[in-house]
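Appendix C reproduces, verbatim, an entry submitted by the partner laboratory led by Prof. M.T., so that reviewers can inspect both the input and the predicted structure.
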Amino acid sequence: MYLLALRNLLRQKVRTAMTLASVVFGVAGLILSGGFVQDIYLQLAEALIHSQTGHLQLAGDGHFASSSRGSGTRSIAEPQRLQREVAALPAVDDVMARVHFSGLLNNGSADWAVIGEGVEPSREAKLSTYMQVIAGRTLVDKDRYAALVGQGVAQVLKVKPGDQVTLILNTAEGALNTMDLEVAGVFQTFSKDYDARAIRIPLAAAHELLGSSEASVLVVALKKTDDTEAVAAELGQRLAGQSIEIRTWRQLNDYYEKTVELYGRQFGVLRVIILIMVLLAVANTINMSTLERVGEFGTMRALGNRGIDVSRLVVVEAVILGLIGGSLGVVVGVILALVISAIGIPMPPPPNANLGYTAFIQIVPRELIQAFLVGVFATSFAALLPAMRVGRIAVVDALRENV
């Protein structure tokens, strides 16, 4: 029967080509749209990791549950020892300490509430590849009283590289402390909210300002993002009993999970629309094909084939079409994905973001398999109704079509 079905498809070249074109179009469309959405997920994840949170963060118990950004009982008392312990893991690329604080930044005539970080400049520069310095320069290890301010902060206070600002905050003991800083540069990330309040200063300056040598968090950069969950689990076992909390970049970025959920729903609707389009197109061509072949099916019945045999032949032809069309669709989709990715798709800044980006089409094996299965399923399902219909036609009525 399979050989007969294949011969029938080759005999009806026009109908077969029309059906294949519908399946190929649908499968390729699913691959391109799915790869585009996966690229959004990937680029958003990397932007969050390499501009703000790193792959993992370690902090004292209760730090992540607190809304406070100050230094205190939730700080890591011996960050250097813990840094060495974490850096010894093979999957870890680097470990850096950060001190969180909040305060007021003054330009001599106005104040602006800021959320700041004391950072290790050289290590942060290596991690923060998605942070663009749009004016001046980034911090370096030899800096002592320098600051890197977000674009929003610079616009509100009207400061530029070389200007003097004063940072005012409370120390761990509650005393008020100030420090004069020189603006080294202005940075921009993908997040407007972050840039509107963020300031970074050298870790040594933060320790001096706060009167403490502790670290608020340790930021872990991994060699591969895919190792995040495995490293988090291993660190959880190694640091058990040390009153250390571990958070992955997903847990630290609620915005990412909400974005994934939103695009997942939108892509789900798109997948259903493409599936319906393929179903309608394939059903139309198969219906026309079966109606034109009623006489042929009547001859088969007259030669002793049962109605179910005729129905099975129509379904087998559709399955073969689905397999061929799905395979061709995967090939076409991958080729188009490679071509589009070689060119790139310029994208405007996402909502609540500063930076545009260049989108690509990711080739994800899971998306290829799903698109292929959708093509096969749609073609097979579309053939069920015509197959049942021709299987029920009386032999006499079917043979009359040959006259």
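The radius of gyration is 31 Å. Additional entries are available on request from the coordinating office.
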